[in-house]
Amino acid sequence: MKQLDEAIWSISGSQAGKKLTIVGGTHGNERTGVEVVLKLREMIEADILKITGGTCNLILGNPIAIIINQKRSGPFSPDLNRSYPTDLLNLEPDGSYEDSRARLIAPFLIASDVVLDLHSTTNPSEPFLCCLNSERHEEIYRWFTCDKVLADPNFITGGRSVTTDEYTEAHGGIGICYETGQATDTSRVDEVIKDILNLMSDLKLIDHKKTQSPNSKKEIFELVDSIIVTADGFRFAEGFGNQSWEQFKNGDVIGYHGEKALQMNYDGMTVFPHTPINKPEGSRVACLARKV
Ligand SMILES: [Zn+2]
User: Fold this and answer.
1) Structure confidence by residue, pLDDT tens digits, 66-85
2) Which residues have a beta carbon within 5 Å of ligand 1, which is an ion?
3) Domain with CATH 2.40.50 in the chain
């Protein structure tokens, strides 16, 4: 593979075709994505994996954060997965390492037909895909071994289009984040690679036979809200805040701002919960999703 920049590699097949970019380590402590990218690069360099058509880019998002095994490159650094506003390349650099990485990576996202950004969650979770829900997205997400798709068409996550998948979408490609499980758990590396090989085969990047048929039957959820710590603080009710995909029903109390109960007026699920202890006012402690 040709190294095009720090932790950015690319290889093209002899046939023209689709451009696929796979990113791991946008958050340095989410190890499955890092291992998947390094393993795919090894397989390509050892000729075990032959890219015969199109282009495959492999990127480690945040090399410094990966080395120190932290989400970001430093305690006050921005989140790389909030560093891709649509007009990034027209803005003045902000001097942060994450901003410099986003600027190096952005042209690859712009040029790709499909971008897969591999993440993991802070708390335990089954694997799930974060992307828009449409037929063209289904063509891609059906290759992944998980049951749920979480769409965020109203930008609840970042308030506006700022993540790798959103940046890709804003520039005409298909952007998908894959939450592969909990950050410390790397037991799904081989499964993720198998799924990627099936996708590569479907996109005609490789000649390998597919090892399983696609699964389009996924439950689709949409982010509708988030829980933000107020001046009164926040604590989860018993049975909530421990993992993604905790189900709540209309009428359930899922937490408390001070003494005030947070009572839900719809059926849904909590996703991306964070321990609220010591979280300052304004911090998000979970997102809330509804089945579509
Ligand atoms: Zn992440």
Assistant:
1) 999 999 999 999 999 999 99
2) 27, 30, 119
3) 223-291
